[in-house]
Amino acid sequence: MPAAFPKISKIQFEGPQSKNPLAFKHYNESEIIEGKTMKDWLRFSVVYWHTFRNQLSDPFGAGTAIRPWDDGTNSVKNAQNRVRVAFEFIEKLGAPFYAFHDRDVAPEGKSLSESNKNLDAVVKVLKEEQKRTGIKLLWGTACLFAHPRYAHGAATSCNADVFAYAAAQVKKAMEATQELGGEGYVFWGGREGYATLLNTNIKRELDHLAQFLHMAVEYKKKIGFKGQFYIEPKPKEPTKHQYDSDAAACLNFLREYELTDHLKLNLETNHATLAGHTMQHEMEVAAAAGALGSIDANTGDPMLGWDTDQFPTDIYLTSQCMLTIMKMGGLTTGGVNFDAKVRRESFEPIDLFHAHIGGMDAFARGLKIAAAIRKDGRLAEFVQQRYSSYDSGIGAKIEKGKTDFKELEAYILKKGEAAPNTSGRQEMLENLINEFI
Fold first, then answer.
1. Where is the Xylose isomerase-like TIM barrel domain (predicted)?
2. Among 101, 208, 277, 356, the one annotated catalytic
């Protein structure tokens, strides 16, 4: 088929002085930062759903997206052609990974067997394009929220037949992900929650969700899939409350149901803000538990209270993300996945390039800033000094679990009063960060 972007060549790094909107100003994939290339630190991934399937509609109007390669049908042939367009785009952009939902890449049929057959036909082309370009699958997942059968949820549905259908769909999606060499698989509970507690048995639904995930773990072992499992937090929308509401809730669920050895977290900025947290908070919570696996790179509009999935351009945000990622030594099976869509008013194909270039440059700047902050050392030194009372004496005994209330009481009775606190120096530290941005 003819090129979908015939006037666009492979995007090149031209440096900060470049005025070319189709060039990287900061993302130089081969540049070495703390012993690794930018490409290896950032592990950029393009999502199939927003980039190649989103028609840019909203509740008040039809889609505006101009996509000349799409013939408007829901045919397998159109889906296969779309794969070739997608890989042309990703190859010219220079991203090493992509991610997909099963129903994004292949049309849903009138039965499960027909849907599976459609997916097989498209996976064949995905495999061909991966081999041709060297682009890899970061992770796959199943769309368990769009079809009306999932109105009450999937793994948490009150209908056992829906639970069974969801299990069959995930089974097939896992097989497709394995066949494509996917480095992970994500569970996002878009409708695993409730709209009202008047008709909801929370305990039963959570038990069912845990059973579902344990079945997935067992099937993963059975087929020999080596990829990492992830669960993705989101507090609401489309449901009133989703059980995977934030990082802490997910970790609590995984611990309660003995799943911590099998799933890490895939975190998203817009989901974090909907939960009332910053992305930095969510990443630090997950990293502290050794459970930060991957991130969806986007942002929300602070003036809007829903999941706007905008491309990240805030350098403070990307610097904070990279400080956490660098502190843990980098992502392994996960990556920086652009779960973001262009605005409804940005409807031309070239806008897809502008959006991704901006996001990649923003994260590249964040990486360089985070590396500079780490090299400077003042921030880390301040934090270390702030907790220095735990490095020796009674503090060290507390951390090692070698003391008790009786001894601590005696310690304070002898001292008469706790040592005075030191200032948190928040403003000074904020000024310090500004030195690098």
1. 89-294
2. 101
Q: What digits encode the pLDDT tens for the residues 53-108?
A: 999 999 999 999 999 999 999 999 999 999 999 999 999 999 999 999 999 999 99
Residues 68, 56 share a domain: yes
List binding-site positions.
Answer: 232, 268, 271, 296, 307, 309, 339
pLDDT confidence band for 305 (50 / 70 / 90): confident
CA distance linking residue 232 with residue 264, whole number of Å:
9
Report residue 178 CA to chain centroid gap.
Answer: 19
Structural domains of the chain, count: 2
Beta strands in 168-247 (DSSP E): 184-187, 193-194, 228-231, 241-242
Average pLDDT of the residues in 271-298: 98
Of 51, 50, 33, the closest CA to residue 42 belongs to 33
Q: Are residues 415 and 327 in the same domain?
A: no
Told to judge if 101 belongs to the known catalytic residues of this protein, a careful annotator would answer: yes
DSSP tag of 148: G
Given 26, 102, 104, 208, the catalytic residue: 104
Query: Is 136 in the same domain as 272?
Result: yes
Q: Whole-model pTM above 0.70?
A: yes
* Mean pLDDT, the chain, whole residue set: 97
Start-to-end C-alpha separation, the chain: 45
Contact call for residues 337 and 98 (beta carbons, < 8 A): no
Tokens matching residue 11: 């995007």
- Binding-site entries for Mg(2+): 232, 268, 271, 296, 307, 309, 339
Do 408 and 314 belong to one domain?
Answer: no
Range of the domain at 428: 380-436
Same domain, 324 and 346: yes
Above 80 in pLDDT, residue 380? Answer: yes
Instruction: Give mean pLDDT, residues 127-143.
Output: 98
Q: How many other β-carbons are positioned within 10 Å of the β-carbon of residue 253?
A: 21
Annotated active-site residue 261? The verdict is no
Residue 165 near residue 112, CB atoms below 8 Å: yes
- The DSSP secondary structure of 230-277, one letter per residue, reads EE-----SSSSEESS-SHHHHHHHHHHTT-TTTEEEEEEHHHHHHTT-
**333 in the same domain as 203:** yes
Average pLDDT over residues 336-362: 98
